[in-house]
Amino acid sequence: MLDALPKNLLPKSPARAPLLEVRGLKKAFGGMIAIQNVDLSIAEGSVHAIIGPNGAGKTTAFNCITAFVPPTAGTIFLGGARIDGLPAHVVARHGVARTYQNVRLFPNMTALENVLVGQHRRLHTTFWEAIIGSGRFRREEAEARERAREYLAFVGIAQRAGDLARNMPYGDQRRLEIARALVAGPRILMLDEPAAGMNPAEGRALVELIERIRAELGVTVVLIEHHMRVVMAVAERITVFNRGAVLTEGPPAEIQSDERVIEAYLGRRSGHVATPVVESEPHRPMEARIA
Amino acid sequence: MSFNAVTSSFKVARRRKSPLAETLQIGALAGLAAIGFALIGAYVAMDKRHVVEDTLTLSQIAYALMAIAAGFVAGRDTQGRPSGSRIVLHGALTGLVAGLCVSALMLLMASVSLRSTLVAASPMLTKALSLGAPIGSLQALAQVPILGALLGMIGGVFAAMPSRYRRALTCGFAIVLIAGLFRDVFVSVLDNVPDFNGPEAEVFGSGGLNRVPALVLLVAGGIFALLRDRWNAGHNPARRARSSKAGLVLLLVGVLILPLVTNDFVAQVAMLVALYMLMGMGLNIELGLAGLVDLGFVAFFAVGAYTVALMCSSGPLALVDVSFWVALPVAVVLAAGAGMLFGLPVLRVRGDYLAMATLGLGEIIRVLVLSDALAPYLGGSQGIIEIDHPRIFGVSLQSPAALYYLALALAGVVAFISWRLQHARIGRAWLAMREDEDVAQALGIDPVASKLLAYTIGAAFAGAAGAVFAALVGSVYPHSFQLLVSINVLAILVIGGLGSLPGVLVGAIVLIGLPELLREFGEFRYLFYGIALVAMMHMRAEGLWPATTRTKENARA
Q1: What does the pLDDT read at residue B243?
Q2: Other CB atoms closer than 10 Å to residue A151's CB: what's the count?
Q3: Touching check for A137 and chain B: CB below 8 Å?
């Protein structure tokens, strides 16, 4: 399967050049500063997790990197090319793909069509060729459908190809969103809470999927996640956010025993207690989310 | 149409109440609807139209439908309780209440003159509502509630009977209504059948169906529906799909031969429908696929029409006098260019703001062509006249039928292009943009570029429609390019089903064809647009012929 794809199996070693380089990132919404002085360095071919309490600015950082919102200050480099200040679709063309905290599929399109839309920047037939129905157009369409099916199979939902996205079970919607992001052939995949609302078994399947994305497709993965089991199982490095800034960064074992991280999650010993593993949003039906 | 409106208004009003109070309320609502219908003048206007000669007029049918609908809703709401007689009783009660409301109106009109404020409350209305009884007599006042009760009872029975029979009755009734309303069309068809002298005189009277043929049609329609149900029940879904496909083919054949078998008036109406279809397909790309709410669509229609007018007229304002076939591509290109030019600044705004911006654009074009400054070139309010008819192989396309085929052929081409684009990379990008613009952009779709393309293609199609319009009318005036044209096209899409190509055909027939053929509706045309739109949103928000909901089967392709 996935013959068309590069199978550059990368070794799981720490010393690699950074693919994504963020320096001094700042985002202010009016007077409210969401993030400030954020530095991130994501090694090529790694799986990097971003954790932190709610409201720490993790998703805002994601949104700045993918140009969903323009950053107030700071620079972002992807593989040496500066991508901050570019419109979102150009950033996407540089090889940045993402998923969303609240799954954002095209609800009235089928799973297959969602993945076909994801291939937008891989297809090249022009408007005129489409009208005439040229040979190239038909060949490319056939290839696109074939590729869409491969990716649906890759994330494990091949049997759902013809289902409308909004009618799919929640877990499959999450998988479809990943397939849609991957099919564009990105260099870096940014997952915003991929395990939210998943049970332990689904969480283990997700860990396996992320491993395969890195190993089989050679795509660098950054994920925001609250489920510590998932984070510890999959991440090579972890960056901890707190109050709009990077608190610390390091390999999982180091983070797990870091006093400051525990404090950020639990508060000081005298303060009131918050749950360390914040269960994120419960399962909600698609309709509620797109409303 | 009034049937739909009445039932949908009941839906809103229905709450958990005692059955009696609910029944009375439904009756009162139907009564109010009936009073409103009379006081806007619709009753008198439609009373002139005989559906069944000397027996039933259109307005009587409208009233009967209101009472039956009220009885139906009341009967349906009491269902689940055991007694059948109770359903009938509730139905009768609603009809009675509705009828009493109408009687009260008659009584009021008899004692007080309402004419100074309500023009339609005329003696003609009183006479029409009296149904031939002496005006103001007890008989006139009593017969309406009694009739109402009877009809309400029928509505109740209707709700209680098995759906098989309900469908059969509805089908038979619909056939009678269509045959009666479109008498002129059918008579013109029968006229054209050679060696078949004068059967229309027996079937149709001077205004509508004769009584016996009406009864025959009612029974035949009912039997047909029963047989069809039987056929569908007895066979597998594949065969059912084939029979519905056969229906579609029949419809297409009808569309193709229509102007040949009827008279020029019907062909002219058909031509108008085809023209709106052409525009509808253009807007369908913008609104149905890309989700751009464009209220200035008429602007590009005007550009196309004026281009042909300036290039093909033998009048004094003409720049050149070339063939229509040369002017048509020029018109399309100019309209597309205008679309691109206006699209660039306008398409950066989203949603409702886009509607506002395009609305302004449509008005700008209309004001420009009307202006004195441009009058030496565009003729101002005098317009441009003496536009040549298109010629094909030396034959001038002058008859409405020929022009109908011209418009239809163009609509076919446009439909083909839309269909192809819909299933290509760009069409998927449009759909994605409509669903979630931010996500689409994050997938690498340039939102402004793809919107601009949709807008430009839509404008080009509108330009083609404008070119045909100029050629078939033979003259263009600024007043042909009002906001209402844009709104009509928009309504066609909503009624037919956004993003659906057959929906455009159905919408254009329902909203453009029917009102043209039913001249009585003329004055109330926009009222019925409104009612139809509200009713559609309530009961069938996806349109009459919605875009296919794709299922597993389709995805196999």
Answers
A1: 66
A2: 26
A3: yes
